[in-house]
Amino acid sequence: MTNELPSSVAAIDLGSNSFHMIVCKLEKGKLRTIDRLKEMVRLASGLDNEKNLTAETQKKALECLQRFGQRIENFPPGSVRIVGTNTLRMAKNSQEFISKAEQALGHPIDIIAGIEEARLIYQGVANSLGSNANSRFVMDIGGGSTEYIIGVNDLAHTKESLHMGCVTVSNNFFPDGIISKKAFKKAVLFAQQKLDPFQRVYNSRRWDEAIGASGSLRSIHKVLIATKWSHYGITKDGLDKLVAHITQHDHINELDLPELSEERLPVFLGGVAILYATFIKLDIEQMTVSDGALREGLVHDLLGRIYDHDIRSKTVDVIAEHYHSDKEHSDRIKQTVHTMLHQLDSNLFIETTKNIHQVIGWAVSLHGIGRDIAHSQYHKHSAYIIDNGDLAGFSRQDQHLLAAIVQTHRKKFSRSRFKKLPSPWNQDAPILTIVLRLAILLHRNRHTHDTPKFTISIHSTSIKLQFSDNWLDNAPLTQTDLQLEAKCLDAADYTLSFS
After folding, report:
1. Confidence (pTM)
2. What is the pLDDT of residue 367?
3. For residue 151, what are the contacts with CB-CB under 8 A and spacing of at least 6?
4. 28, 146, 184, 215: least CB-packed within 10 angstroms?
């Protein structure tokens, strides 16, 4: 905790239905909400038949983000967390949109997996409710996905994200707002089928309290209270009455439900169908509704990063232990890597020093986990686990970055592997990987004694290592390894010299 701590933080959720922003004041490690912004963008409705975001949808979304960007234009790097969810996970041209969106906001955007979204939602709910339940079931209906979570206190232990949301279900089963009993029954059956494989895991016998998050659930709750179909929370009896009312009409404009806004109306039926199917399938009788959701979870996650309680570091430790990584060996490599980085010109990397050291530390911890699968080509197995696993706290971009570094830490050095990484990592990661390769090479014998004294310098594509006291003359294996490494790097247009 230094003077560099930001005075305010913000989180933005680029959802499939709405974009949300929350701004909080940071006071002695505590958060106080000072501003909220929300706009219905309906990103999920803007996917064409080829799964590309249309130009019209992008324009609408970017106009919203320019307004959001004005609110956070003076926020320093590291004080804003922005995530994209289901639609940006699916859109083939999402990177094109993200590049424009980052310019509008002035901060990087992370694409998170559905399981990570579920974890963050639970964090938001857990930090917003004063519940004393031993075990909580949390549900969040988004525009393109629905998350189900079971957790205790602030720890989510069971998480699932299903590809159904209020926008997609409304579009697929109630096009143009047309209602029929048959269509509603089909929508409920669709949601039940999606939930069917998880019925036993999330059944009401396995938790003490049900909590709903998201705009869909808050809208349904407001309607039930206003109509007096429910007196506390969302109840099964209240939902039965709401469904009976809905299916008596032929179009959403005829519903005439109190507390239901015009902007929520087009996606209301999809949310009701998903919730109704969930109540039936999981045998739920009553659910309270939380104000906390994904953006609140993001803020608390960001707070952990600011105060050096980054969930990602804990995730790396758990994975390394699970795959029986040699921690002592990794710690020696880390020490050598950090020694090298301290010697290098600070202008060599574009990314911040803190992030450089953090990322390379994670890469060292995870570089050997593939050995638990097979020794041959273990670096490829390590990279596959990193790139495809559900790693708590990590964005898709984080995982792609780590996977690229780990896969390239030995044998062929492929520069093309880094080209698709977002800036500035597409420029920083190759140099960082070379540092990792050399550190691992110097610890090949896995001795516990200190590595020899050496200096390293990197200028453009030229790397120089110099050892003291004629050490290299008495280390023929290391000398041979360095010669082979020089050939690998030469094939990638780098020059390694050593003496």
Report:
1. 0.89
2. 96
3. 122, 126, 135, 136, 138, 157, 158
4. 28
